[in-house]
Amino acid sequence: MISSSKIAKLANLPIKSTEEGTFTKQLESILDIVSKLQKVATANIVPTAQVTGQVNVFRDDEIDVARMFSQEQALSNAKQQKNGFFVVPAIFE
Amino acid sequence: MLLDKTISQLLKGYREKEFTPKDVVSEIFENIEKNEEKINSFVTLLDKKEILEKFKDIDLSLPLAGIPYVLKDCYVTKGIKTTASSKILEDFIPPYNATVYEKLISAGAILIGKTNMDAWGHGGSTENTDFGVTHNPWDLTRVPGGSAGGCGVAIAARFCTFAIGEDTGGSIRNPAAWNNVTGLKVTYGRVSRYGAIAYASSFDTVGPMAKTIDECAYVLQIIAGKDILDATSSNEPVPNYLEPKTAKKFTLGIPKEFFGNGLDKEVKASLDAAVTKFQELGVETKEISMPLLEYAIPVYYIIAPSETSSNLGRYDGIRFGSGRENFTNETKRRIMIGTYSLSAGYYDAYYKKAEQLRTLFIEEYRKALLTCDAILMPISPTPPTKIGELINDPVQNLLADIFTTSQPPAGVPCLAIPCGFTKNKLPIGMQLVGNMFSENILFELGNIYQNATSWHLEKPKL
C-alpha cells in the first residue's frame, strides 16, 4: 500500500491534500505494473548498479583553477543571496 | 533546399564555394519564421544576427565548420538559458559548458538553439513540458515523440542538420521514429555526460540525431571519447566510424516476442517488410527468443525513477531554480515511485530486485548476440499518438516504452532508422541493437538498408 502523502513528505515534494487521492491511485496502478518483476527467480543473482566495468575512478586531489567558479558565478542563479552567501531555509528555530 | 543536404554535402559546398554558412543559416531562419510557431520546437532560439556575426570568419577546415545543429535543452551552455523544459529552471543560466557542447564548439559547428523536451527526460511525447507541447510536423495534431521531441522535429522541419539528443529509455529513438529521422543511443559511457542534466545516471546517454546514418557516425566521431570530467566515461578507444568494414555476411536476430501482439498492424507490416528487405540485401536473419525482455517496463520504471528521485533532490530552489512545487505531476509521480522503491521495507522487493533483473538482462543480450551481429526491434508499438493521448494516461504513457527500455539497463547501443509510413503518412522507425561498443557494426548493417531505401529522404509538407 502506498500513501502518496507519506512518500511526498519523504521526497520533499509539496502536493496538495486535494491531489493526494489521485496521486495514490496513479501510483498504485504503476506499482501494479512494476511489481510484475516479482515473478522472476533471482535467488543468488548479483545486482548490477552500473555497466562500465570500472571501479574507483579517481582524480588527483588537486585544484584546477581554470575550472573554479568565482563566488559571483556560483551565486549567479540563486534566488536569494546575502553578503556573498546562499540564503537557505532555517533549520533551527 | 540547402538543408536537405547532408553534413558532408554542405562541407563540400562550403569548400568549393558553391554556397556559404551564411546562406545555410539564412535558409534555416526562413524555415523557422515560416513554421516554428505551429511546431514549437525551441525553448531558446539564438539570435540570427549574433550567429552570423560570430561565424562570419569561420575556419572552413574545421570538421563541422558552419554546420548548424540544435541541442536538447538538457545540456548546459554557458551564458545560454538551460531549462530541461522545466519551470524550475526557466531562468537558469549555466556558468559552464557541457563537454559535448565544448567539442562541437571546437569543431566549428553552429548552435541554432535549445530544443523542447519532456521535462528532465520524463516522457515519450514532449508533452510533459512547461514550454508548450511540440507538434509533429508530419501531422500537427500529433506528438513528435520524446523526450527529445524538439530535436526530431528540428531536423525534419529543416531547422538544422543534426541534433544532440539524450536517450535514457528511448528519448532519442522514439522521436527519431516519429519524425522520420535517424538517431543513435550510444553504448553507455561512449560519450561524456558531463554537463548533461541527469535523469537516470546509470542509463543516460548522449547521442546524435540526423537525416542519415553517415551523419550520425560523423558526429559520433567528434563527440565520442574518454572525458576525465565524467567518471563513467569509457576508456574504450574510439574506432574510425567512417570507414566501412570489409563487407561481411551479417546475421540479424529477430526476437519473436517483440513481433507479435501489441504491435500496431501498420507498424508490424513495416517491420516485417524491413526484415524481408534485409534478406533481399543478403543479410541472414534468424528468429531468436528473448523472454526476459517482457520485464523491461518494470525494471526500467523502478530503476530510472529511483535514480531520478536522487538526482532531482538537488532542485531545492537554493543554489539555482525555483521550488519543488513546480515539478509537473508526471515528474512528481516518477520521484515518488523512486522514493518508494528505495525506502526502508521496499528496497529489497523493488530496487534490489530490479537490479538483479538488470544482471539477467545483460546476460539475455549477451547470449542473443552470440548468435547474431545485431537484433532488429520495433521502436514504438504505435505510430505517433494524438496530442493528449499519452500524457493524460499515466499507465499508457509508461507501457508505450516497452521496446526502448530494456537496452539502457544493459548499456547496449541502438541505431534508430526510418523504415516506412502509415497510410496516413505517419513515420515508422526500427532499431538495430548490438553489443556494447558495436556502433560501427550498427552503422554498417544499417547502411545496407538505408542505402537501398529512400524513406529517410522524405520530409513533411509544411
**Biggest β-sheet: strands ordered side by side in the sheet of chain B:** 1-3-2-4-6-5-10-11-9-7-8
The poorly predicted ranges of chain A are none
Mean pLDDT of chain B, to the nearest integer, reads 96
Q: How many DSSP helices of chain B? A: 14
User: Assembly state here?
Assistant: heterodimer
Please report the distance between the alpha carbons of the first and last residues of chain A.
35 Å
State the largest interface.
A-B, 48 and 63 residues
Strand order in the sheet with the most strands of chain A: 1-2
| Molecular shape of chain A | flat
Provide the succession of SSEs of chain B: HHEHEHEHEHEEHEHEHHHEHHEEH
**What's the main sheet of chain A like?**
2 strands, antiparallel
Mean pLDDT of chain A: 94
Rg calculated over all Cα atoms of chain A: 22 Å
| Overall SS class of chain B | alpha/beta
Largest sheet of chain B: 11 strands, mixed
Which stretches of chain B are low in confidence, meaning pLDDT under 50 for 5 or more residues running? none
Gap between N and C termini of chain B, in Å? 13 Å
Q: Which strand-content bin applies to the residues of chain A?
A: under 5%
Shape of chain B: globular
Task: Describe the protein in words.
The complex is a heterodimer of chains A (93) and B (462). Chain A is mainly alpha-helical and 93 residues long. Chain A contains 3 helices and 2 strands. Chain A has a two-stranded antiparallel ribbon. The longest helix of chain A has 18 residues, at 17-34. In chain B, strands 1-3-2-4-6-5-10-11-9-7-8 form an 11-stranded mixed β-sheet, sandwiched between helices. Classes of the chains: A mainly alpha (93), B alpha/beta (462).
Which properties best describe this structure?
heterodimer; A: 93 residues; mainly alpha; two-stranded antiparallel ribbon; flat; B: 462 residues; 14 helices; 11 strands; 34% helix; 13% strand
